[in-house]
Amino acid sequence: MTGLPKLLMIIGGIILIIGFLMHFIKIGKLPGDIVIKKENTTFYFPLMTSILLSVILSLVFYFIGRFK
């Protein structure tokens, strides 16, 4: 198997592992995340979580590209 099918299987496996780990590691609700609660509505914007995941994924893809 080469090309696109292999890449899709690798990406799917990575997403599966990340989803499994996020079940045990509560990465949401970090300081800096925006939570607005009104009467019966809650708005949650994960600002710091998004920044943290962006930095981590940037480093991962940098190292993958560097050693490929």
Walk me through the structure.
- The protein is mainly alpha-helical.
- It is 60% helix and 12% strand.
- It is built from two helices and two strands.
- It has helices at 4-24, 47-66, and strands spanning 34-37, 42-45.
- A two-stranded antiparallel sheet has the order 1-2.
- The longest helix has 21 residues, at 4-24.
The SS-based structural class is: mainly alpha
Order of strands, widest sheet: 1-2
Proportion of β residues?
Answer: 5-15%
* Poorly predicted regions: none
Helices, by number, come to 2
Radius of gyration: 16 Å
What's the main sheet like?
2 strands, antiparallel
N-C termini distance? 18 Å
- Tell me roughly what share of residues is in helical segments: 55-70%
Average pLDDT rating: 84
The count of β-strands is 2
General form: elongated
- Helix and strand string, N-terminal first? HEEH
Topology:
Layout: H1 4-24, E1 34-37, E2 42-45, H2 47-66
Antiparallel strand pairs: 1-2
Quick summary:
With 68 residues, the chain is mainly alpha-helical. It has helices spanning 4-24, 47-66, and strands at residues 34-37, 42-45.
Question: Which key phrases capture this entry?
Answer:
68 residues, elongated, mainly alpha, two-stranded antiparallel sheet
